[in-house]
Amino acid sequence: MADGAVVETRELTKRYGSFVALDRLTISVGRGQILGFIGPNGAGKTTTIKILVGLARPTSGTATVAGIDCAADPRRVKRLIGYMPDTFGGYDGMRVAEYLDFFGAAFGLPRKGRPKRVEEVLETAGAGTFRDLYVEALSHGMKQRVAIARTLLHDPPALILDEPANGLDPQARIEMRQVLLGLAARGKTLIVTSHILPELARICDRVAIIARGRLRAAGTLAEIARQLSPLRTMEVLLTRAEAVPAAADVVRRYVGDAVTPAPAEFAVRFRTAKPDDELAALLGTLVAAGVGVAQFREVQTDLEDAFMTVSQQADGEAAR
Ligand SMILES: Nc1ncnc2c1ncn2[C@@H]1O[C@H](COP(=O)(O)OP(=O)(O)OP(=O)(O)O)[C@@H](O)[C@H]1O
User: Whose CA is nearest to atom 11 of ligand 1?
Assistant: First the structure.
């Protein structure tokens, strides 16, 4: 087990006949960490999750939760993971507290302690006020929080949440974000899938991007940006549009051709692998040239850029 890893896969591979759905996936998530697990449709996310929760067996490689092998000991692993699928699966005519009590019984929690446990998980999931409401009458955002509460009943160290922010309005999304960050702060290890990438980027410590069954990039967003391209995107903002051609000429002399003038935005953008001291010299030259530099900054790659780059690279590979 890697140092402090709570959830770990090593060279995890799943074949369906000759089709490789998952190809030597190696990831690890530590205690109190949130991993964003993303990839285009059919990338292999659900396959990975199914193996982790003991619902599918790997063809080769291993998956462990708190050191327990998911394939060898699926019953024990189910006690170590709280899994929230992307569908709720409610039961009509049940109040929230009854619904959670029912699942608590299914997890084998003793009857005597269940009401207290139900209250605790409702509080943790920010759903304390829903206890007497009928499940079918809850809004989507409320259901998502009850679903989180359900994953917490047996107090597992690791949670796998499939699209927890899907279909939530902005207010509910913010509340969901706070719940997830709160769980990590209590030491839970979270794996979260989402197609709402800006939202995911706000809560994750690290991100793993898979496509066509293979891990394509992993790490913090800055690390992923570096893995995908050694070039940084820089932007010079000017005080007036007329100075854009002159500024672009200065930049071109330093970095060559990868320069994009954008007069409508008073901007010059360029991609470069040059170190900071050379960029500092470029800034000095721009200022000395009197082009009116208002800002000189690196444009951060966002998760959507990274996702698109990875998907396109994977599609390109498959087409070759
Ligand atoms: N039981 C199966 N038999 C054959 N192929 C399968 C089976 N289950 C999944 N696959 C294939 O494996 C690949 C990975 O599927 P998976 O469901 O893991 O993707 P995903 O990343 O979860 O996608 P999505 O975002 O669409 O849910 C897909 O091409 C899928 O068609």
Answer: 21
Whether 188 and 261 share a structural domain: no
pTM, two decimals, is: 0.85
Which residue type does 165 have?
A: A
Provide the token pair at 28: 């690890």
In a domain, 28, yes or no: yes
Residues with CB under 6 A from ligand 1: 16, 19, 21, 39, 41-47
108 alpha carbon to ligand 1 midpoint, in Å? 32
Indicate whether 165 and 42 sit together in one domain.
yes
In a domain, 310, yes or no: no
- Closest atom of ligand 1 to CA, residue 50: 18
Rounded (10°) CA dihedral 61, 225, 255, 257: 80
Into how many domains does the chain fold?
2
Atom 5 of ligand 1, nearest CA residue: 16
For 194, other C-beta atoms within 10 Å of its C-beta total: 22
Q: Is residue 307 a part of any domain in this protein?
A: no
Give the CATH number for residue 277. Answer: 3.30.70.100
Q: Whose CA is nearest to atom 4 of ligand 1?
A: 16
Domain with 274, as residue range(s), is: 231-300
CA-195 nearest atom, ligand 1: 25
Residues facing 298 on adjacent strands: 234
Closest approach atom of ligand 1 to CA 47: 18
Residue 42 Cα, ligand 1 centroid: separation in angstroms?
5
- What one-character DSSP code corresponds to residue 300? P
Question: Residue 64: which residues within 8 A CB-CB, separation 6 or more?
Answer: 1, 5, 7, 8, 9, 70
What is the pLDDT tens value at each position of the chain, 320 positions in all?
A: 455 799 999 999 999 999 999 999 999 999 999 999 999 999 999 999 999 999 999 999 999 999 999 999 999 999 999 999 988 877 778 999 999 999 999 989 999 999 999 999 999 999 999 999 999 999 989 999 999 999 999 999 999 999 999 888 999 999 999 999 999 999 999 999 998 888 899 999 999 999 999 999 999 988 888 888 878 889 999 999 999 999 999 999 998 878 999 999 999 999 898 999 999 999 999 999 999 999 999 988 888 888 888 888 888 888 87
Determine the distance separating the centroid of ligand 1 and the alpha carbon of 78, expressed in angstroms: 22
